[in-house]
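Researcher: We're reviewing a set of sequences before deciding which ones to prioritize for further study. For each one, I'd like a predicted 3D structure that I can look through quickly. This is Homeodomain-only protein. If possible, include the structure in token form so it fits the rest of the review sheet.
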Amino acid sequence: MESSRRNGDVMQDMNLAEDQIKALEENFMKVSKQPDEATLMLIAAECGLSEEDTAKWFKLRYSKWRTSEGLPAVCGSVKD
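Model: Here's the predicted structure for Homeodomain-only protein, in token form for your review sheet.
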């Protein structure tokens, strides 16, 4: 993957159905922005996705959310 690609581009490349995106967004906003493994497994089952794809989506979405909040995209930065 090229480093110049934006998170939105990568998320679109995942080819998720509208109902999957809706379920992922609901979980992101209401349950956890960084779900633990057990929660991630439940969300993946709910959406019909692999745990790896679900984890990837949450990582990209969290990065996008942090950027929208004016924070660095990655946690642990000196600027946090």
